[in-house]
Amino acid sequence: MDTTVADTLVGRVLDGRYQIQERIARGGMATVYRALDTRLDRLVAVKVMHPALAEDPEFVSRFAREARAAAKLSHPNVVAVFDQGNDDGTVFLAMELIPGHTLSGSDYLWSAAPHYWTITELLTRLIDRAERLRAMKRGLQRKPPPELRLLS
Q1: Where are the alpha helices (DSSP H) in 27-118?
Q2: 137 pLDDT above the threshold of 90
Q3: Protein fold of 13-96
Q4: What is residue 40's predicted lDDT score, i.e. its pLDDT?
Q5: What is the pLDDT of residues 19-71, one digit of tens each?
Q6: Residue 56 CA: distances (Å) to CA of 59, 84, 91
Q7: Where are the domains of the chain?
């Protein structure tokens, strides 16, 4: 993660509760931080909506609705949403912090994925598969020969 640019939220406490420790990821709608929930003494992920989007009341309303809907879900493959709020224009969600890596960044993806085929091998296999499917489709469009027809 690039930390060369100072992040003004790092060190800040949101809603008198979430002490922002470090930026984890940044996306098109929000930035995600590791934070300490000082009330419950646990680490959480805090997703903070980008300021430009936080100025749109309709977008903020949708963000809050989605937070409430997500908070109702309980499944091992879904991150738990603990809280949502607005701290003086900073719109955020507090969520379960999952240890590990994000899937953004090709370095992580390519280092974790085994290399099986070159592009040429992949294209050759795809063309071969397409030709076999085309031949099979042509075969299905013809009437079967009389020796393959059965009467019952």
Answers
A1: 51-54, 57-71, 106-112
A2: no
A3: Phosphorylase Kinase; domain 1 (3.30.200)
A4: 97
A5: 999 999 888 888 999 999 999 999 999 999 999 999 999 989 988 888 888 88
A6: 5, 17, 11
A7: 13-96, 106-143
**CA dist., res. 101 & res. 27, Å (int):** 15
**Nearest residue to 1 via CA among 34, 29, 28, 47:** 34
Sign of CA dihedral 27, 93, 2, 16: positive
Share of the chain above pLDDT 70, in %: 73
Report d(CA 84, CA 132) in Å as an integer.
Answer: 53
Indicate if the alpha-carbon torsion angle 60, 65, 68, 72 is positive or negative.
Answer: negative
In one-letter notation, the amino acid at residue 115 is H
Tell me which residue of 13, 12, 14, 34 sits closest to 23, measured CA to CA: 34
Are the CB atoms for 60 and 91 separated by under 8 Å? yes
